[in-house]
């Protein structure tokens, strides 16, 4: 019998806008494991932003940075850091325009400006204290994600010049910077290959970065609070996160 693996986005899927994990969802994940079904977290978050959730759910397989950093059964399986030389050049150019940045490795996030209002505005609900300041953190280190903080749209010339990056607007005042072409879908492929290519895969999500994952999985499930185009691409649409959509879909699919 094929192994069953279920990939779960976090924000808007396992937890709601207030970062609440409902007891019904927690118990559903526990039941999956009792049924020998493997849950894998798949998120755009860095791993150090959801350690408590991993411990709570007792999950040791997870995909961070939209596929740039993968841990399977507690062991580092894959990593794809940003090209260092290109990132250094981008940083120098952004510094000349007084545009602050953030750099994230597998352990920490730093920023290049102190008490900057755009940085504070982006992370109000995500972190408890302002990150430490560093201007050389990105040198001689594996950086998996960077961010630009700016109100205006990024100039097309910059996007073309740094074509090795994907610039993704995730907040009205910030862009994510990731290696071009990374996605949760590619991560699913790598995890499936590691399992011998025989697993039946399911994926739950709600946001734009979940679309390719939903389409890649054998069965893609969109939350009731998902973007409309993601619902259209999914095989099944469940109820929203506040109405215990994960548990209800797992029961509907006879996985618990």
Please identify, by name, the CATH architecture of the largest domain.
Answer: 3-Layer(aba) Sandwich
What's the number of extended β-strand segments?
Answer: 14
Number of contiguous helices: 9
Return the CATH class of the largest domain: Alpha Beta
CATH topology of the largest domain: Rossmann fold
Give a verbal description of the structure.
The protein is globular, with a radius of gyration of 18 Å. Helix 1 (23-34) packs parallel to helix 9. The protein has helices spanning 23-34, 51-57, 84-96, 117-123, 156-161, 184-194, 211-216, 228-233, 245-252; strands at 4-8, 38-42, 62-64, 69-72, 75-79, 101-104, 109-111, 132-133, 145-149, 165-171, 174-179, 200-205, 219-222, 236-237. The chain has an eight-stranded mixed sheet with strand order 5-4-3-2-1-12-13-14. With 256 residues, the protein is α/β, with parallel strands linked by helices. The chain folds into two domains: 4-79 and 182-252, Rossmann fold (3-Layer(aba) Sandwich); 84-179, Hypothetical Protein, Haloacid Dehalogenase-like Hydrolase, Chain: A, domain 2 (2-Layer Sandwich). It is built from nine helices and 14 strands. The model has no long low-confidence stretch (mean pLDDT 94).
